[in-house]
TrEMBL record:
Its cofactor is thiamine diphosphate. Residues 5-180 form the Transketolase-like pyrimidine-binding domain. This is Alpha-ketoacid dehydrogenase subunit beta. It comes from Streptomyces longisporus. InterPro entries: THDP-binding, Transketo_C/PFOR_II, Transketolase-like_Pyr-bd, Transketolase_C. CDD domains: TPP_PYR_E1-PDHc-beta_like. The lineage of its organism: Bacteria, Bacillati, Actinomycetota, Actinomycetes, Kitasatosporales. The keyword DNA repair does not apply.
Amino acid sequence: MAEKMALAKAINESLRRALESDPKVLIMGEDVGKLGGVFRVTDGLQKDFGESRVIDTPLAESGIVGTAIGLALRGYRPVVEIQFDGFVFPAYDQIVTQLAKMHARSLGKVKLPVVVRIPYGGGIGAVEHHSESPEALFAHVAGLKVVSPGNASDAYWMMQQAIQSDDPVIFFEPKRRYWDKAEVNTEAIPGPLHKAQVVREGTDLTLVAYGPMVKLCLEAAAAAAEEGKSLEVLDLRSISPLDFDSIQTSVQRTRRLVVVHEAPVFLGSGAEIAARITERCFYHLEAPVLRVGGYHAPYPPARLEEEYLPGLDRVLDAVDRALAY
């Protein structure tokens, strides 16, 4: 049955289903229990499943992830929440040197089915350390899967698939989209976790995005259509691994590519996409691959964030530049 729900609610329902389906699933994090999380994503779960399944932890991100690793070694499937994106760095060592490496270190004998939930990105007028986009740092680390849904339906199903994965998954949740609603069919058969999806077809240029920027790219495509330009929008959904085949298929048809992400352009995910698609599609491209993203600077105070974040004008400017070649 399909139901319209907000992205945050979809994650809540997905976590609820996982807790009901598997007694080894645990939820851990700062304020995830009694409070239900600062964004209320885990609201009601501790009340219904108890304090031994939905666990309020101390303010210690390294300890949260380290504990989750130990639990996973004992057969549990922990889902841990990092309260805000900028708070993940105290746990970075545990994630990249332990969580990501254990499978290889044990020659495949040890699996670590841990999901690390990270609300990320700006657009909510938050203070310092609450609006970061660190996804490229984790995508660079072999052994980690890195995903980000752009709508409520994907949020529901991708969380299910992440929890069921025997590999660690970093699950970036676009916090500015928590309240965006979409139809969610909880009885559907989902596609592969790391498969990109065409969310709008077009013929003149491909816009590639993930997470919070998918909606912006759809708005850009709608605006461009009023001027007679046909833009295809591809939602990557997965940042590591990247579905280069789907990008290549789209670009071979449209012959132009603009990659949009909220994170800084410098050494961001768009750089890898631009390099790989240039290699794969060199004789198809009619313009260089262009990138739109944040600046290579610390995230600014809330009053200035709209100047920092990619907006409609910056995306459409890149589209115009690509079409002008």
